[in-house]
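Course assignment 3, question 2. Fill in each field.
Student: A.L.
Task: Predict the tertiary structure for the chain below.
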Amino acid sequence: MSEMQSLHTEVYLDHAATTAIDSRVAQLVMAIMTEEFGNAGSRTHSYGLAALRHVNAARERVASAIGAEPDELTFTSGATESDNIALLGLADHGASSGRRHIVSTAIEHKAVLEPLALLEARGFEVTRIAPSGSGHVRAEDVLAAVRPDTLAVSVMHANNETGAIQPIEAVAAGLAADGPYFHVDAAQTFGRSTAALRNRRVDLVSLSAHKIFGPKGVGALVARRRGVRRPPLAPLMVGGGQERGLRPGTQPVPLIAGFGLAAELAIKEERARGAACLAMREQAIAALTRLDPIIHGDWNLGVLPNILSFAVPGIDSEAVMVALKGLAAISNGSACTSSRYEPSHVLVAMGLTADEIAGTVRISWSHDTGPVAWPEIAERLDDLRI
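Answer field:
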């Protein structure tokens, strides 16, 4: 546990929002910040060349982790920016080719839904596939919505609120080789459930470092070639040639290097981390069973082992968070939309009742969370029912 973590009394159970930086990664980031602080674009001296080596090494590490070529990887500020480049960056090609239709789902992150709304305002048509009551979309429904004028299909790999894993492999298998570009928001699964993301039919993949114990403020967009052709992405910003002009601006070398190491460690330790998270999930469910919770996500269809989304009948989520204050830091929704409180669009799309939506909380942990007082958590929630 870090010195900063020790200042908090609660156990941190909001890893779906962000993770603490791995000490090994932090050491590398700080060393580059303070000792090798050159600009990777300054190639006339040793400081710049050292910075460029760090960027190139990180590009190799992240690309290797996801089964891509290094030159298919563009570093960004995170998955939100990657989602925007992937979708808005295709707009010019869609307009010029007459392909103005996009297929997505109703449970996507706002970083996908809001760019899609912008495209609709520009004359594109978007079909949003509804999930089942468990939060899973059917690959058959996604594929049935594809049309000759479909430009792109965008389906998240796992939902950030429920942990429900979506059938991206089945979608990829059902798309024609020369069909719509397939984009996947993999912020929650890269480094946790990576195998499906290595499918070459997944053209565009959005990644974020801070979900895998890397630094905040850096991510990547994987844009795989089809033969020799890259996806026809146009930059959203201009002003430099960095990242092949797709994402101009001075590269944050320490963050990029930290992302590279975090990705490498996540892949090396993926199986062990997953087993630890699954054991934690079993402990949580065993303790909460006495409350007869409504658990979102069908385990048989796939749910991340580090996320548990549930509601206890008769208990409001705000009351839960107050009751657990000082014991556990949890969430009642996505941290990315916490600036305003409104019913979760994910839970609404699942068709849950108003009481179930109001009562839903999300608990998320990691392989290094440490002991959690699950029986005490269950007892405090039980007391709310009296």
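Instructor remarks: The radius of gyration is 21 Å. The chain is about 35% helix and 15% strand.
Grade: pending
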